[in-house]
Protein 1
Amino acid sequence: MTSDYLPKRPAAERNSGVILNLLKDILPPTGTVLEISSGTGQHAAYFSSALAPRFWQPSEFDPALINTIDMWRNHSNSDFFLSPIILDVCRKVWPIEKIKPNAPITSIVNINMIHIAPWEACLGLLAGAGRVLKKDGILYIYGPFKRGHKHNSLGNKKFDLSLKEKNPSWGIRNIEDIEKAAMNNNLLLEKIEEMPVNNKSLVFRKLR
Ligand SMILES: C[S@@+](CC[C@H](N)C(=O)[O-])C[C@H]1O[C@@H](n2cnc3c(N)ncnc32)[C@H](O)[C@@H]1O
């Protein structure tokens, strides 16, 4: 059935295939994948069908998007695409910590959020991943990043400036700062993968 009528983001349309290829390699083979900031839900639909038997738990900060994610869920009609929940990474306790999922959360996926939110959201993501994941659980973060406080392209430098104009607390994050904050939550940065259009994938493993 056509998905033409469903809300889509162009960036999510473009990056789904390359991200899926990497997720197939790095995600634990079973359990639940908790997606943070699912946006429209189009990633959830695409990834949940391709990554079964893992369950896909979408979540969103913006309550208005829950309905949209549900539209994608109905369209996909998959038992592995779970009902979306509201989740703000900055909360000291995430709602998922209070409910027992059918299958344990073995990984967390977050795409294109930490530069379009205050630094506290990145810290909240890492703290929450530290609480929710068990030993060897995987945290995957995708987006544009700086390394050694330097941009990897003129395009990302301009993008960073445009983000800060919209909101001074937003901006492209520095990998070393994320790595340090992750270690405070027992998350080891295990892999940095170059992705198209000057993006990167960061893969963290929970140490204990
Ligand atoms: C650019 S969108 C990316 C959405 C989706 N991951 C994608 O790739 O299409 C950024 C998302 O971050 C979410 N977000 C912002 N602040 C957040 C927070 N504190 N906790 C969880 N999500 C947040 C927004 O609601 C928005 O859906």
Protein 2
Amino acid sequence: MDCKFVKRSFFQRVFGVSETKKPTVANCWEYEDGKLVINLHEASELRTPGGAIRFEGGNLPVRVLVVCGEGGEYRAYRNQCTHFGHRRLDPVPGTNTVQCCSINKSTFDSSGNTIFGPAPHSIHCYPVEKDQEKLIVLISE
Ligand code: FES
């Protein structure tokens, strides 16, 4: 499989600066009882294919990357590369892959399987349900 790469500078990769940001509207999500619930009305970054947000901090037990895929479907991943740097991930534009922001660019297919780079294991995918304007990510650590 041909692998595309997210455009990042050398220094961004060395320091592991991910392209994907936290939500613009900070309180567009909440976490309780294993469910990350995102208000899509406020999470505008997720309304167009290729959009993504990283969720972390607060009472969320793991970092989560949520992506609106090229076909408009939603996917969620544990936002932690399985290579030893455990850096964050970004969606690769025009593909349904996600990629580590580090210098080694480990890349994973839509199911989380490693397709490029040194990451020794797949990344964890979380089930996603859509309920009108709410996106519910079922978190299992
Ligand atoms: S931490 Fe992801 S490739 Fe090294």
